[in-house]
Specification:
six-stranded antiparallel sheet, five-stranded antiparallel sheet, alpha+beta, about 25% strand
């Protein structure tokens, strides 16, 4: 695994604007970064990232099966009691999912270590599935990257195929897609998914989360008062289950992407449960609930809120002393503690691998880096290649 400096394509910003990649820079900082790329071998991808990704995903599903059957575990995962049956039934009914992203610390030699599972609202789909592939094509065509170079990236192809399968379960239905207002990255991600759904032959309609209304008999409606029956939402379940309209979820008769059972494996409480059921697994880090920290004998660890996203409210402790922390709005729900395993460092950059799944199958990776050990929403995205 190498980090290789390279020249930017001279026209990439103009091209990004043409393709609608409007969040390549955010708040005056570069988000997409093609001044370097990461190089992997095929063996590294297949054996150390692809295979563990699919195995850990199945382990996560095992945890869901245990949690939905145990009220004490539902409490540990901070699922509101009034929604236990809603979440449980989504699992028992085998409601289908679309995608997930597992985040790993991986240095190219040692087993990849799971940091967390972004199973509900993972972003960076567009830049992973389309934009970095376009980068590779242009770099190969210009001779800047070897013609035999490949990329671990079947994300877009698998997304379209998955939508085709889901469409058969919802004949003649409109797929509504939604995210919050005033977030260009989320809107761009949802637009990409909308394009993939169109390619699969699905009729779609976009509506902002804030504009969803209540229709007759407790249904959910869009801006045109059309009843929503099938919906993708880039909005976390832990938020939805605590909204005023959550009282409608049981009766609204909506097929959700992602399904409500994803509230369990997108939750940091997943990590100590994985360690409980699969102790000493080579791709897991020892992880514990707050009440078990004293028994863990860990002195170097990371404190993570159960609901945190994008690196918010993460604290790193060495010898039980706080050495680094990030700000954010989370923590009231409680914390878990995970053994400290720092990201590999290349020059001044700490590097995180995001490994994608579509319909239970590994589908590609994204590479993020930051000068900080804590990867956050503005951490840079870099392309990668496979060259054996």
């Amino acid at each position: 695994m190498f980090r290789i400096p390279c020249d930017e394509r001279p026209n990439w910003r103009k091209l990004a604007d043409e393709y609608g990649f409007k969040f390549h820079s955010m708040y005056g900082q570069a988000y997409w970064d093609e001044t370097a790329y990461y190089q992997f071998s095929l063996q590294q991808i297949e054996e150390q990232l692809e295979a563990p990704t699919e195995e850990i995903h199945q382990m996560c599903l095992h945890v869901v099966d245990k949690v939905v059957a145990d009220s004490q575990l539902m409490q540990k995962f901070r699922i509101p009691e009034q929604h236990w049956d809603f979440v449980r039934q989504s699992w028992l009914n085998k409601e289908p999912c679309l995608y997930s992203r597992l985040d790993f610390a991986y240095n190219g030699k040692d087993p990849a270590k799971l940091y967390e599972n972004n199973a509900d609202t993972p972003t960076s789909l567009y830049e992973t599935g389309f934009w970095q592939w376009l980068w590779l094509e242009e770099k190969v065509n210009s001779g800047a990257v070897h013609r035999s170079a490949d990329q671990f990236n079947s994300l877009q192809e698998k997304l379209v195929q998955r939508f085709q399968v889901l469409a058969k379960q919802h004949p003649d239905e409109i797929l509504h897609l939604s995210c919050c207002k005033d977030t260009e990255e989320d809107r761009g991600t949802v637009q990409y998914l909308q394009d993939c759904a169109h390619e699969a032959g699905i009729e779609t309609q976009f509506v902002y989360i804030e504009d969803i209304g209540e229709g007759i008999e407790g249904g959910l409606t869009d801006n045109d008062n059309q009843i929503i029956t099938w919906m993708f939402k880039l909005y976390p379940w832990e938020f939805m289950l605590n909204e005023d309209y959550s009282r409608l979820l049981n009766q609204a008769n909506v097929s959700w992407l992602e399904p409500a059972w994803k509230s369990i494996i997108s939750n940091k409480a997943l990590l100590p449960m994985l360690w409980k059921y699969f102790p000493d697994h080579p791709n897991l880090l020892p992880s514990f609930f707050e009440e078990d920290l004293s028994k863990s004998q860990m002195s170097h660890y990371v404190k993570k809120p159960i609901f945190a996203r994008e690196g918010s409210n993460v604290s790193i402790y060495k010898d039980h002393q706080l050495t680094l922390s990030s700000e954010g709005p989370y923590g009231d729900e409680g914390f878990i503690y995970q053994a400290y395993a720092p990201l590999p460092k290349y020059g001044d950059s700490h590097t995180l691998i995001g490994s994608w799944l579509i319909d239970d199958k590994a589908a590609g990776i994204s590479v993020r880096e930051d000068s900080s050990l804590i990867t956050q929403d503005l951490s840079r995205f870099l392309p990668h290649i496979i060259l054996s």
